[in-house]
Amino acid sequence: MTIIENRPVASPLSRPIERRSRPRTYAMCSPEHFDVTYAINPWMRPGVAVDACRADRQWQVLHETYRSLGHRVQVLDPLPGQPDMVFAANGALVVGGRAYGARFRHPERQAEAEAHAAWLRSMGVDVVRPEHTNEGEGDFLVLGAMILAGTGFRTDLQAHVEAARVLDRPVVSLHLVDPRFYHLDVALGVLDDGRGDSPADIVYAPDAFTPHSQRTLAELFPDALRCSLEDALDFGLNLVSDGRNVVLPSAAVRLASALEQRGYRPVPVDLSELLKGGGSVKCCTMEWHA
Ligand code: ARG
Prior knowledge:
Bound molecules: arginine
Helix content: 10-25%
Oligomer: single chain
Distance between the termini: 33 Å
């Protein structure tokens, strides 16, 4: 990965920021019915052979990785006939015990929203049914001070306004321009949500955004780590961080070393089988934000 900008996190005289992890609660959905039977993003090739055992093994490793890092993982049952349901991030946006439900863009995935909502309700989460099209955490990334929201391919701009009202949090809209980065979580990764002692920290591919959104990001996060579009194509930005440990696709070796220099601990996992559906680490993981 070519890092366009990698400003030091501390002056040579001071010590680098000590990254601290915070225990998280994640939701995942098994890849039991994972397949590529339709194409709703440029990564999907219907008819490509999917190795179900391999997909399951890779998913189990991700699940075990979170548990070994001390996180809680809730697992929901997949629906037969919903081959993309393994990408649990899209099922809702859960913040402060309340969920803003999903409403999928494509008919192929629409049944997933109700399955997530019913499951979340059974877990005691208050689920608000959305009026506007939105794909949950695929297009909403939560920081302590704000929610970053993507639009352009899947989630409607009106859903940003709706989410802000439902969750009572400020939402910053970001416009995506490249179909390969059809969700915000493939163009931008949250490294530190800023809820602890350290400032919020993100990594993103500026070229995936309109010039206006690039300026918004530069203004809000002047010290963010940036990478080129080419380098984001290995799905490295589709990561899950607990503030210290950054679980990311193993192909993203250059990003991993840039993260290490920034004081994080990269934890590479191979999810290459799931990449056939156009998703990786973050797509498979919905966080329940406090
Ligand atoms: N095949 C799925 C789709 O196109 C992949 C979803 C990936 N999820 C994500 N959070 N980016 O909808």
